[in-house]
Amino acid sequence: MTVDVLLLSVPRIAPVRPQAALGILKTLCNQSGKTSATFDINHDFFMRLANQSPAPAKIIDDYFITFTDPLPVDIQTIYNDWLVYWTDRIVELDPELLVISVFSWQSQRFTRDLLQLIRPRYHKEIIIGGQGLVNSQNMSAHWSPIASYAQDLYNNGLINWWLKGESEETFPRFLAGERNLPGLNNHDVVALADANNIPLSDFSDFDINSYRNGYAGGVLPIESCRGCVRSCIFCEMSSEHGGYRSRNGELVAQEMIHYYETYGVQHYYFHDDLINGNLKDFNQFVDTLLAYYKEKNLPERHFSISGYWIIRSQRQFGEKDFEKFFRAGANLLITGIETGSDRLRKIIRKGFTNKDLEFNLEQIMKWRMKFYFMLIAGLPGETIDDFNETLVALTRWQKYVASGSIIGINLGTTATIEPGTEIYNRSEKYNLVGLHGERPNGIFWMSTDTPDLDYKERVRRRVILQEHVNQLRYPLWKGDDHLKIIIDKYKQNIEVWEH
Fold first, then answer.
1. CATH fold group of domain 219-498
2. Among 14, 170, 365, 489, fewest CB within 10 Å belongs to which?
3. Domain 5-196, CATH number (from 3.40.50.2000, 3.40.640.10, 3.40.50.280, 3.10.105.10)
4. Is the pTM higher than 0.90?
5. Are the C-beta atoms of 497 and 432 separated by less than 8 Å?
């Protein structure tokens, strides 16, 4: 078999569902009259190699994300054999174009290792895209001015092209032979103007039911929007993905119905920034699903729906709204709460209060949904009173852990200042200063409003948060791993802080 285009999904991505980008790219190939195939190398790593060699695979996984170097000799041999296996398959297929989706910085090391083996044996065109075009753990190539990782691969002859931004319009033009395109080997920011033009994905190359998610029949990704309706001061999403663009709710529901009727999948994860940013579209989505259940004589909750959730007031989204959402299939809702202090949450522009949050939690518990949330220790401007309010709130919310409604909490590392965010672009407005005359960036910042909140104090508060949630038996996601990262980072930069 030969194909025009070979699409690769590469480690490291959680192996819970097919990668959305590959489904869209395959559809774009179909529409352009190009034959294509998809190799999910990431799936092979977690579902085959890790099952055959669990201990070595764990070390290789750490190698992808911690940049530990070198691997032990015996582990390196296993890794090399696996790389050669995939290189042989790719070269044997001999596509006219090789496309690699570099999902994030966690995919960069594998991508480089693979390309170093492929390039001497494969001399046709190679193009990469995705958020991992940038040499950073916290930035995205969607908005970063320089695709530094991609540029380095290009300079070393490992790729021919990189394509930045949302590619629904540019990738088909590339397939048609155009090479003077925004985002193609240049640093233009490219966003899809109308989110309703996102095509249906082609997941026919994926073994959907074989991913590690615990849902019978598997899970598929879907989108309700691009961008974010919020403008939190510490988040780069509004600049990363362009302005907020909602999709017509009926269109989203019909896409879900299409996947169900095509692949038999009933479980869906919205991988966009939020699913209820536009309530008119969201309610239309729910109504369309309920009408479909009735038309096809299906039970309510025939589908399950999970994704990021904006906390809204009872006036905006009340008890009857939650009931309808439950009947449509509401499952897991994910929210960045960030702090238990209403004062601080207002400053960072989260747009809701503890009263709003607790109404949502009551409805989630009543309608047997699940909730997962994130907190950030040491946000700019956080006083000790704000921090103590967070501890008190966590104690108050513990009843939702006991009921099984809260199924996870992510404490992450500590607050950082990232390019593209409000607090980076306007640090002086928030009384933030860098160290030794430098611009506030990453962990290297102080607030003149809270001069005691240096990095050491932020780490201390993060440790206290973890101890507190552990005592309350919150299910904590990678807490010890995050602690190791921030403590190692402090040790690496202790001289910077003390001098």
1. Transcription Regulator spoIIAA (3.30.750)
2. 14
3. 3.40.50.280
4. yes
5. no
